Amino acid sequence: MALVAAGGERADDLRQLRLPPEGGVLAGTRLSHSAKVRNSRAPAQVLAAGMPTRQTAGMPRFAAQPDLFADLGRDMDDPMEQEFIENIRDELLTTLALARGATTLPWRDLTQSTLAELHFNSVARYLPEAETERLRAEFAVEMARLWAAEEAKDVSAAS
After folding, report:
1. Whole-angstrom Cα distance, residue 75 to residue 143?
2. CA–CA separation, 67 vs 54, rounded Å?
3. pLDDT band (50, 70, 90) for residue 130
4. Which of 124, 118, 116, 115 is nearest to 99 (CA)?
5. What CA–CA distances, in Å, run from 3 to 10, 18, 32, 70?
6. Could you tell me the pTM of the whole model?
7. Cα–Cα distance between 129 and 127 in angstroms, integer?
8. Is 94 exposed, middle or buried (0-12, 13-18, 19+ CB in 10 A)?
9. Where are the domains of the chain?
10. In the list 19, 115, 124, 142, which could disulfide-bond 99, CB 3.0-4.6 Å?
11. Which are the contacts of 18, defined by CB distance < 8 A and separation ≥ 6?
12. Is 114's pLDDT higher than 70?
């Protein structure tokens, strides 16, 4: 389909088009809605995909889209919900019990073992500070024991 600019000459690309104010019909060809929006000199209110938008920092934002930086009525420093904390505690205690009951690393490879250790230490921060420190210390003792067992296994395999 050939594009025709407002003066009747051929347009090589949509940026050269200037649409008449009443619609998108040029030389008998109807342009797509996205071409109309992209090439119009629209004010702050435009129609995009049939939904009114408003401009935010030069970018259109759909009216139904919530503001990313709006006050949601909850401080980030608010205490976590008790159910969430209980789930975290259960997960950490399960992982700690797994480490305590193992004679070698209970995860399938060294990468999974390292990730489990990182995950444990990361997720523990959601618990109260004293409990976090206690669980991390207990887990560190168990992981040191398991890593030592892994090294001893590697040394004996190499001999």
Report:
1. 36
2. 12
3. very high
4. 116
5. 6, 11, 12, 43
6. 0.51
7. 6
8. exposed
9. 3-62, 82-158
10. 142
11. 5, 6, 39
12. yes
Residue with tokens 């940026």: 15
For range 4-25, the mean pLDDT = 58
Tokens of 151: 């090294």
pLDDT digits (tens, 9 = 90+) for 90-102: 999 999 999 999 9
Rounded distance between C-alpha atoms, residue 3 and residue 12, angstroms: 7
Other C-beta atoms lying within 10 Å of the C-beta of residue 40:
15
Query: At 69, is the pLDDT very low, low, confident or very high (cuts 50, 70, 90)?
Result: confident
Alpha-carbon gap, residue 142 to 146, rounded angstroms: 6
**Which amino acid is located at 36 in the chain?**
K
